[in-house]
Design brief:
Elements (H helix, E strand, L loop, with lengths): L5 H6 L4 E4 L11 E5 L2 E4 L1 H20 L4 E4 L3 H14 L3 E2 L11 H20 L1 H5 L2 H18 L11 E4 L6 H9 L4 E5 L10 E4 L5 H42 L1
Parallel strand pairs: 4-5, 4-6, 6-7, 7-8
Antiparallel strand pairs: 1-3, 2-3
Helix pairs in contact: 2-8, 3-8, 4-6
Length: 250
């Protein structure tokens, strides 16, 4: 993992908190000072917490597990989509549907239906059975379902961790993760409670540049973990081949 650069966090405006009147007292440990009625976040603490978070994420992915990336707020949607595209991790950038984690049977059923529709559309099965208008309606249904479920349709099991860009805006995602004892890594602004988050990252959760910069570090951690997982798998495959070759010699 590359060294976290405090100057880059500063340039991204990660130190700007909310108005002092909107603060959460449990964020006191991460606040440096006040300026013009705004709390200023201690970026030294941000670096410390971000290092802990990225180490955790890297180890999770190195073990072959997935991290669910969540950012449904407008400013977070693009950074999360970019991170998901770069890492092939599941993500949610539209509305969080109740039960995405806690009601896997129902959500899984909808995802399975979506995949079946996509398979039938790609194979020409729908086109051979229905007229053009009906096929168009199936395509519209596929598009609508992909908005809601597209980011999680390749999430084969519950994630080992959830990364959230705003714990207040995506409180339902945090709530479901906690209910299932899934560790949460999250950006925590000065108006939020960090005590229920396993890996809180104190930073501005409204500025696009701040969200992007922190998400970039999370992305790098995932990629490093994935590289370790790939090496581990390659080594296991090689050992298996060696064992099979020895058996054949006997």
């Amino acid at each position: 993992m590359s060294k976290i650069d405090i100057t880059e966090l500063f340039a991204a405006g990660a130190h700007f908190g909310h108005k002092t009147s909107r603060w959460h007292p449990k964020m006191a440990q991460y606040i440096h000072s006040k300026k013009d009625g705004i709390h200023v976040i201690d970026l030294g603490k941000t670096v410390e917490q971000l290092e802990l978070a990225t180490d955790f994420i890297e180890n999770i992915v190195a073990s072959g597990k997935q991290v669910l990336l969540v950012g449904t707020k407008r400013q977070a949607q693009e950074p999360i989509k970019k991170a998901a595209e770069a890492t092939k991790m599941p993500f949610v950038t539209e509305r969080w549907l109740g039960g995405m984690l806690t009601n896997r049977s129902t959500i899984g059923g909808r995802v399975k239906y979506l995949k079946k529709l996509e398979e039938d559309m790609a194979s020409g099965k729908l086109e051979s059975k229905y007229n053009k208008l009906e096929v168009q309606r199936f395509q519209e249904e596929i598009d609508q379902m992909n908005v809601l479920f597209g980011g999680i349709k390749h999430m084969l099991q519950l994630p080992a961790a959830v990364f959230v860009t705003d714990v207040l805006h995506d409180a339902n995602a945090v709530r479901e993760a906690r209910k299932l004892h899934i560790p949460v890594v999250a950006i925590i602004d000065t108006n939020a409670d960090p005590s229920n988050i396993e890996y809180p990252i104190p930073a501005n959760d409204d500025a696009i540049k701040s969200i992007q910069k922190i998400t970039d570090y999370i992305t790098e951690a995932i990629q490093l973990g994935a590289g370790k997982a790939a090496k581990k798998q390659a080594k296991a495959d090689e050992e298996q081949k060696t064992q099979e070759a020895k058996k054949e010699e006997k």
